[in-house]
C-alpha cells in the first residue's frame, strides 16, 4: 500500500503545483483500474502493457501519467492510476492504435477487471 501512495504522490507532480477541487471540462481526468491477470500469462501481459504505457507517454501529450503497481504478494493483481489532461485527451487515448492493440492482445489474459471513473476531490502537487 505504501508503494501506491508513493506512486500517487509522484503523479500529483504532473499537475505542476495546481490545486483542483471540482472537475470541469478542462480539469485532469483520473481513471483507476483493478485487474487480475491469468498467472500463466503474466509475462506476456507485462510485456504488452509496458509497450502500451511507454508508447502512450511518448506519443500522447494529453497523457500526463500512467502508473501500474501490483499488490504485495499477489503479482498478478494490478492497480493502475491514469491521469489525462482532460476528457478529450482520455478519449484520444482510447482511440489510439497502440491502446487498441493492447486491448486486443490482452483481452484473454485478464481474469477480472474493475474500472473506476473518478471525480477530482483534491489534487495537489509541488511545482518544479
What's this, in brief?
By secondary structure, the protein is α+β, with helices and mostly antiparallel strands. The N terminus is likely disordered.
**Helix and strand element order:** HEHEEHHE
* Binned strand content: 25-35%
Task: Bin the helical content.
Answer: 25-40%
Give the biggest beta sheet. Answer: 4 strands, antiparallel
Number of helices: 4
Helix-and-strand structural type:
alpha+beta
Overview of this structure, please?
The chain is an alpha+beta fold and 128 residues long. Residues 1-22 have low confidence and may be disordered. The protein has helices spanning 2-12, 42-59, 87-94, 97-106, and strands spanning 29-37, 63-71, 74-84, 110-117.
How would you summarize the topology of this molecule?
Layout: H1 2-12, E1 29-37, H2 42-59, E2 63-71, E3 74-84, H3 87-94, H4 97-106, E4 110-117
Antiparallel strand pairs: 1-3, 1-4, 2-3
Helix pairs in contact: 2-4
Question: Key features?
Answer:
single chain; alpha+beta; 4-stranded antiparallel beta sheet; globular
